[in-house]
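Lab notebook, design round three. We kept the backbone fixed and only want residue identities now. Task for the bench partner: fill in a sequence for the structure below.
Input structure tokens:
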């Protein structure tokens, strides 16, 4: 390639930046003079620094190891500590200087016997990770070595906001204090987060920097605390920009994180930060809960606001926002003392999972793991390593004055069947309770045991004969025996694999127990009379052993190495075992994943969906199994199975759930779904209501509201008049647009229509074969002709199941009778018929929601076992 001419104008590109230069020819050398040398040098310097940082050696977390000391020895088992964590010491610096820190290993506050130092007073950071690109770094200093650690822009902004120019600051930050690339360490450290947040001086909530008028929104929140002005603000059109700014603020990504529920809920004190503005969480939560309750007035306000296009639903459905849910939850999750110390939990894991759909997790397993420690019936276990032979079960003891854990070790291969723990207390006056089975003279024998035998665990499994469902499931799965851990749960008993093994008599149990040798334990202490923490933990351990069967029942191992289906099975096994109900199969809680079986309800069935503008709008009807407006163990509004307990089984290796029940009917005719809450005119034709001058058929208007009101009580009789009024407003006898009618109608009609939307949205009206004109059915939008209406034991509402025979939908096989069609049923075929069902969803069958199907035989077929996949 020839040289360019003398004094030619060219350009040079260095690391993505282009700058012009002029080339001069000399006699013996060529030189380049940069036209814009200074900016290019600065850019090159900055770019090279980023490249060098990326190329630098990453921080080795073994420098602040959380392994047990003996794990560093050759051949030792690698066991992660459950009594220690890392703290970040953020070094002081000027606002624009590089972030620098140290990582320090500290013990948990209650672990006094741990050799690691006690933690300094620290704050815990709660923030949204957000995008990780942006070339931001924090330097971790370890002795004379400096390790650049990449961090996201949002975390960079938060650390700069909380860094001091005068002193070092101690923080706990999950992205830096946990080795995120080490699944084993995460499995141990994540269960400790509840203690870390609970013992922090303050939880710092970081919403991000200034955007969308957030500074004005933070000031507006302070102003709303003056209740004398609040009522004026929700009707004054001038205030609408401030409400819009506050709405934008509480839609920030932080409010959708699932982890924030425990981070804020466990905090003794929490402060919300947005840029350089801050406010106490309790004050912030008070204002946004008042915002949700003022939604009717705010709809009128925005309807009159030209600046927001007179859109009454500009703010969307506020009650579904994560911010509103969080504000309502934080003070209701726990029982607390006056100093904010937690003494107990209010809700079951099932209630939490089915009610927290507004909160998301980037890791699908965290849908469960992020809320395990908030439930009163779940007992998380940290899985420290694959080679560990013992697991430590940690649960809070509710009758202790502080939130402190109690640890108890169990063998890794301990059975999950119903067991009798063999208690060995030497105190003859102990209040052991009904499950304290002490053989005679065991104390004398126990005293002679060696120290090692005292650590031995003894337990005895009581077996029962194989049930009918065991045999059917065994034959359905090709004659294989189901793993004992997945055996049918019937009335809280676990059945043995062998069908011939009889239930042992109580005398046999006692005889077997007296033939064992029993280790001795010191005299039991009372938790309240304990003199120090060591005695308190020992007493609490005794309390834990007395609760052994219950704790084993709620035990869930936190293991990020598990397949997602196995994690969800863990949850369902616990939820169904505890509640003896399978209503959870009708409550959407799992992230949308096409590979999951149909009996795991996914978020795309949720009643509300998030638009691209961050506004929640209704997309489906509310679940029928849940009493409206209630979280927890509220009475169910329906009882289609008439209280019959569930009979179920989830095989260990498979995608099925086996449930017992019966077929009630089959869909004969279906109408168009009520998309967007628009009731098709065909619905009125289907029930013979052609003249709206007459009152609507009772079965029709009661079906539209599920025969209950918004509080779960019986539907009021005056809703018949409201129904007639609403349908009389339709234009030219067309469809009923419920959302349009709600903008301008009497309050009684509005109350009726709001309930109608909760019940019919995206559902379709259907008629059934046997019940015929006696009843109506509201079925899921994807229901088809030929689908079965079934009542499953343990489910409070009927469900729609689709039958498959040898992998083909049964309705298709029956409808096609062409002799050469491969889907045609062939009764002469020697092929073994394999039948399974797809779970379509719950449904409302008028007149059958209270167990009426069990009154008359003509309403039902024989008992069946459904293999649902």
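Proposed sequence:
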């Amino acid at each position: 390639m020839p040289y360019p001419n003398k004094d030619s104008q060219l350009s040079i590109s260095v690391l993505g930046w282009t700058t012009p230069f002029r080339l001069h020819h000399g006699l013996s050398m060529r030189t380049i003079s940069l036209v814009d040398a200074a900016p290019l040098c600065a850019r090159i310097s900055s770019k090279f620094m980023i490249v060098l940082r990326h190329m630098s050696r990453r921080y080795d977390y073994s420098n602040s190891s959380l392994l047990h000391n003996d794990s560093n020895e050759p051949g030792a088992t690698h066991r992660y500590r459950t009594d220690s964590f890392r703290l970040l010491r953020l070094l002081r610096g000027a606002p624009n200087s590089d972030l620098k820190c140290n990582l320090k290993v500290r013990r948990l506050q209650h672990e006094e016997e741990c050799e690691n130092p006690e933690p300094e007073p620290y704050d815990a950071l709660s923030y949204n990770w957000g995008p990780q690109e942006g070339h931001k770094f924090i330097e971790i200093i370890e002795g004379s070595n400096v390790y650049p650690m990449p961090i996201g822009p949002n975390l960079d902004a938060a650390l700069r906001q909380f860094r001091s120019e005068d002193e070092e600051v101690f923080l706990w930050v999950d992205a830096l204090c946990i080795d995120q690339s080490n699944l084993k360490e995460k499995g141990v450290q994540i269960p400790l987060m509840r203690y870390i947040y609970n013992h922090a001086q303050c939880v710092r909530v970081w919403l991000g920097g200034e955007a969308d008028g957030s500074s004005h929104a933070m000031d507006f929140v302070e102003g709303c605390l003056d209740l004398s002005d609040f009522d004026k603000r929700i009707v004054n059109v001038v205030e609408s920009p401030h409400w819009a700014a506050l709405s934008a603020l509480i839609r920030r990504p932080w409010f959708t994180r699932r982890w924030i529920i425990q981070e804020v809920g466990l905090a003794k004190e929490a402060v919300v930060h947005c840029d350089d503005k801050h406010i106490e969480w309790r004050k912030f939560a008070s204002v946004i809960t008042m915002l949700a309750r003022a939604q009717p007035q705010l709809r009128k306000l925005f309807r009159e606001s030209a600046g927001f296009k007179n859109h009454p639903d500009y703010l969307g459905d506020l009650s579904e926002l994560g911010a509103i849910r969080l504000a309502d939850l934080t003070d209701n999750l726990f029982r607390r003392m006056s100093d904010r110390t937690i003494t107990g939990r209010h809700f079951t894991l099932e209630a939490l999972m089915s009610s927290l759909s507004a909160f998301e997790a980037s890791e699908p397993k965290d849908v469960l793991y992020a809320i395990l420690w908030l439930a009163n019936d779940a007992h998380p276990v940290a899985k420290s390593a694959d080679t560990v032979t013992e697991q430590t079960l940690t649960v809070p003891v509710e009758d202790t004055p502080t939130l402190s854990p109690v640890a108890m070790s169990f063998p890794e291969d301990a059975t999950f069947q119903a067991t009798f723990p063999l208690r060995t207390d030497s105190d003859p006056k102990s209040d052991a309770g009904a499950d304290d089975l002490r053989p005679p003279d065991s104390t004398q024998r126990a005293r002679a045991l060696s120290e090692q035998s005292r650590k031995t665990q003894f337990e005895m499994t009581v077996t029962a004969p194989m049930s009918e469902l065991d045999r059917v499931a065994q034959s359905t799965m090709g004659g294989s025996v189901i793993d004992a851990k997945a055996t049918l749960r019937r009335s809280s008993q676990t059945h043995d694999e062998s069908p011939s093994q009889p239930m042992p008599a109580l005398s046999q149990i006692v005889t077997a127990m007296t033939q064992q040798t029993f280790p001795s334990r010191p005299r039991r202490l009372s938790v309240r009379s304990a003199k120090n923490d060591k005695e308190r933990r020992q007493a609490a351990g005794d309390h834990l052993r007395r609760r052994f069967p219950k704790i084993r029942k709620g035990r869930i191992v936190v293991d990020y190495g598990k397949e997602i289906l196995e994690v969800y099975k863990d949850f369902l096994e616990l939820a169904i075992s505890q509640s003896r109900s399978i209503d959870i199969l009708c409550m959407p809680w799992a992230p949308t994943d096409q590979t999951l079986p149909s009996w795991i309800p996914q978020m795309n069935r949720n009643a509300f969906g998030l638009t691209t503008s961050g506004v929640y709008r209704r997309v489906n009807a509310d679940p029928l199994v849940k009493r409206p407006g209630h979280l927890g163990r509220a009475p169910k509004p329906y009882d289609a199975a008439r209280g019959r307990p569930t009979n179920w089984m989830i095989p260990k290796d498979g995608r099925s759930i086996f449930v017992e029940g019966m077929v009630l009917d089959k869909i004969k005719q279906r109408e168009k779904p009520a998309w967007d809450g628009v009731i098709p005119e065909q619905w009125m034709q289907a029930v013979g209501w052609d003249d709206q001058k007459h009152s609507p058929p009772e079965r029709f208007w009661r079906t539209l509201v599920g025969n209950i009101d918004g509080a779960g009580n019986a539907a009021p009789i005056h809703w018949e008049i409201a129904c007639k009024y609403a349908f009389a407003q339709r234009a030219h006898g067309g469809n009923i647009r419920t959302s349009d009618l709600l903008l301008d109608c009497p309050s009684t009609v509005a109350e009726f229509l709001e309930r109608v939307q909760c019940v019919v949205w995206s559902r379709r009206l259907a008629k059934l074969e046997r019940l015929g004109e006696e009843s109506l059915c509201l079925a899921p939008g994807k229901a088809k002709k030929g689908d079965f209406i079934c009542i499953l034991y343990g489910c409070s509402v009927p469900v729609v199941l689709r039958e498959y025979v040898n992998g083909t939908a049964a309705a298709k096989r029956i409808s096609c009778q062409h002799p050469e069609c491969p889907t045609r049923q062939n009764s002469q075929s020697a092929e073994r018929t394999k039948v399974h069902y797809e779970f379509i969803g719950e449904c409302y069958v008028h007149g059958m929601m209270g167990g009426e199907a069990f009154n008359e035989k003509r309403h039902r077929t024989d008992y069946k076992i459904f293999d649902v996949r």
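Keep this in mind before ordering anything: The longest helix spans residues 37-55.
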